[in-house]
Amino acid sequence: MTINANPDATELHTILIADDHPLFRNALRQAVESQMPNSKIVLAGDFDEVEDMISANSDADLLLLDLTMPGVSGFIGLIRLRNEHPALPVIMVSASDDPATIRRSLDLGASGFIPKSSSIEQIGEAISEVMAGNIWLPKNIDIDGEGDDEIAGILANVSKLTPQQQRVLNMIGDGLLNKQIAYSLGVSEATVKAHVSAVLLKLEVDSRTQAVIQLAKLGSAVGFSPDNQVQDQE
């Protein structure tokens, strides 16, 4: 994947946009079209669609990713995508634009952060900067303050999970039983049990319920938390 230092508006780029809100998804599309009118733009409304979209567009130049996409909790989507597609630049998009959220996004590998309060012009500026190989942040935001050590610790542990273990963790957060997870992933229940054990070990917790509590803490850090019932299993 090659990104030009000064992207030509006439050059064909592939830009991926992932947001579950149609109005803002359209605003992102308009911003891309204003910067690069000849670009190929691909849209997704949930995290499953995001993964399919990336698989079908392996040469994509940029992903604009909503921080609270359905199908994934908070920062876990970013962590998973950085693990699976390290060459794909990602700009996070969120209504939560506090310095801690922005700092965590950059620490986890994002190339920029666009608040949902941004104008079309600001979104276009962010896209242009990142496509030129730079980091883009909202102006007048100081991200150098103290962070939340507990959230940082949870994120560090989540980053240790393999992509498949991250999928299992999200399904645990959705309240799925082992047999349901096994069916969804196309693996045996024994394999799921092994994944669950590894997830609990890496998260340094003793039960599925405690794992979901950690997911909820990550979600609440960006204004989102899972609300499904969790069933502990042997």
Explain the layout of strands and helices.
Blueprint: E1 14-18, H1 22-35, E2 40-44, H2 47-56, E3 62-66, H3 76-84, E4 90-94, H4 99-107, E5 112-115, H5 120-131, H6 149-158, H7 163-173, H8 178-185, H9 189-203, H10 208-220
Helix pairs in contact: 1-5, 7-9, 7-10, 8-9
Question: Which labels suit this protein?
Answer:
234 residues, five-stranded parallel beta sheet, 47% helix, 5 strands, alpha/beta, globular, 10 helices, disordered N terminus
Question: What does it look like?
Answer:
- The protein has helices at residues 22-35, 47-56, 76-84, 99-107, 120-131, 149-158, 163-173, 178-185, 189-203, 208-220; strands at 14-18, 40-44, 62-66, 90-94, 112-115.
- Helices cover 47% and strands 10% of the residues.
- The chain is globular, with a radius of gyration of 18 Å.
- The protein is α/β, with parallel strands linked by helices.
- Strands 2-1-3-4-5 form a five-stranded parallel beta sheet, with helices on both faces.
- The protein is built from ten helices and five strands, in the order βαβαβαβαβαααααα.
Question: In order across it, which strands form the biggest sheet?
Answer: 2-1-3-4-5
Global Rg: 18 Å
Alpha carbon gap, first and last residue = 45 Å
How much of the sequence lies in strands comes to: 5-15%
Question: Can you describe this structure in just a few lines?
Answer:
This protein is of the alpha/beta class and 234 residues long.
